[in-house]
Write a structure and sequence with these properties.
Elements lengths: L2 H4 L19 H16 L3 E6 L5 H11 L4 E6 L9 H8 L9 H17 L3 E6 L7 H10 L10 E7 L1 H7 L5 H4 L2 E7 L4 H14 L9 H11 L3 H17 L7 H13 L14 H26 L1
Parallel strand pairs: 1-4, 1-5, 2-3, 3-4
């Protein structure tokens, strides 16, 4: 709808995880480095967690795009409550035939597959996204699968990516042996206001638009309502562009963002609900302006201290 009006080659704020739009904040860069470290250094289990919409799946997609041919990856994303047999899903992730196979047969086939890959100087990695949905028994089964590893080399590397519920689940006493095998773990937090500004401008630039399409106050308003959650940022910015297009605005300002967020709050879905949702629009405007002024002052002080 608004792509031609704003000079975009594609929508900059799609909800589809797309590594081409990946913005590496300090936290996202560290999470990606830890994923890569876990792959190359065979550290045991790797656990990456983050809130809903924090960009975990996009990081996984980026990792898949950068691994070498020496790594064979099986990706599992279908981890809802009716998940079924773990070994079947692992077999399917590696395109193994699991028809008419019982659990013992599947296990032996998978061991043979790992040995074949190892003999060909390839490493095998299982990545489970939305891993917070795994049952305790499935997590224990993963631990047992890791017993395949022997001597100095890992035949199987396991990476779990999930919401904070995964951390709470792993802290249960029943999984203490599992936790002892976690070599790398990291919790991905929300974006700072500086990173939110960078994120918004980065995605617009990748889509072929003017990175300053959202002015600094508009970006600060986006951070205010989304609290630095990338998925919510995408939703809010996309709607702001629709509103801006409807009003033929060549630049998105703070008023447009406030209007979009206020309209969504009226539906009662709470998508952009913040601790300051009870404030009037004028109070919100003043809060956002103070935030930007404070950020500018802090940047100036940092510049002076380095001079």
């Amino acid at each position: 709808m608004y792509e031609a009006f704003y000079g975009f080659s594609e929508k900059p704020f799609s909800l589809i995880p797309d590594p081409d739009f990946l913005y590496l904040s300090k936290g996202h860069q560290l999470a990606l480095n830890l994923l890569e470290y876990g792959l190359t250094e065979q550290t045991g289990f790797v656990v990456i967690t983050g809130e809903v919409g924090s960009g975990k799946t996009t990081l996984v997609r980026q990792l898949l795009n950068t691994v070498s041919d020496e790594v064979v990856i099986g990706l599992i994303t279908n981890t809802h409550q009716s998940f079924g047999e773990l070994l079947q899903w692992i077999a399917l992730a590696f395109d193994m035939d699991c028809r008419d196979k019982d659990k013992v047969g599947l296990y032996q086939d998978f061991v043979n597959f790992l040995i074949e890959q190892y003999a060909s100087s390839r490493r095998t990695v299982v990545i489970i996204d939305e891993a917070q949905n795994l049952s305790l028994s499935a997590l224990e089964e993963l631990r047992m699968l890791s017993n395949i590893n022997a001597d100095k080399d890992y035949l199987l590397q396991l990476i779990l990516v999930g919401q904070p519920e995964l951390l709470r689940k792993l802290k249960r006493p029943q999984l203490r042996q599992f936790v002892q095998r976690v070599g790398v773990d990291y919790h991905l937090g929300p974006l700072s206001i500086e990173d939110t500004i960078g994120y918004v401008r980065h995605r617009i630039e990748v889509a072929g638009g003017d990175p300053n399409l959202f002015d600094e106050f508009a970006c600060a308003a986006v951070h205010h309502y989304t609290q630095g959650v990338p998925r919510l940022t995408n939703i809010l910015c996309d709607l702001a562009l629709v509103y801006g297009y409807a009003e033929e605005k060549r630049q998105i300002d703070m008023e447009t963002v406030i209007e979009v967020a206020s309209s969504r709050l009226k539906t009662g879905l709470g998508m952009f609900d913040t601790p300051t949702s009870n404030l009037s629009r004028e109070e919100v405007r003043n809060l956002i302006k103070r935030t930007v002024v404070t950020k500018v002052e802090e940047t100036a002080l940092q510049t002076d201290s380095r001079a």
